[in-house]
Write a structure and sequence with these properties.
The chain is mainly α and about 170 residues long. It starts with a helix and ends in a 12-residue tail after the last strand.
């Protein structure tokens, strides 16, 4: 069960980073700044992040009020002064995304299937080794590998037809 593993890891990492940011915000806040204890937890609020951002260094993430993030509160006279420099919320991977090794395995499986199909199409010898066994006698419906001399044509698999019946059978 690897589906959702990257999602669970990302959620745990986001919770850990949010807890660290809250601790840092609570440590820098003085008692005079905090009117009630609930204010300390809400000191850092995440803002919406545009879809163009991918996981990377946190220093590259935009702060609130910058281009590409949620705008400051409209109607506020000093909205730019009161806009806190908050980090944008990290985007999470899809809930059903398998982990990286499973993705590598799926890629290798699809690649090997494609190569197997193409080898059967390109090489008669490969097709004979994979799908056919040696016959001890020739009979109707057997396949024969035809391998011509060099530069005289290409190899082929030929199915033996039923024996020819005479046109005028004897009575």
């Amino acid at each position: 069960q690897t589906a959702g593993e990257p999602y669970r890891v990302a959620v745990a990492q986001r919770e850990r980073l949010d807890a660290l940011e809250r601790e840092k915000a609570n440590a820098t806040a003085t008692q005079a700044q905090l009117a009630d204890p609930g204010e300390a937890v809400e000191a850092v609020k995440p803002v919406a992040v545009p879809d163009v951002f991918i996981f990377g260094d946190e220093s590259d993430w935009p702060a609130a009020g910058e281009a590409g993030t949620a705008p400051a509160a409209a109607g506020s006279a000093n909205a730019t002064d009161t806009a806190e420099l908050l980090k944008a919320e990290r985007p999470l991977p899809h809930e059903w995304l398998p982990n990286a090794w499973v993705c590598v395995g799926i890629f290798l499986l699809c690649t090997s299937h494609a190569l197997f199909y193409l080898m059967c199409h390109w090489s008669v010898d490969w097709k004979v080794r994979v799908f056919f066994a040696h016959a001890h006698a020739l009979h109707e419906g057997c396949y024969v590998r035809f391998k011509p001399q060099p530069h005289k044509g290409k190899a082929a698999l030929v199915r033996l037809p039923p024996p020819a019946r005479p046109r005028n059978p004897p009575c």
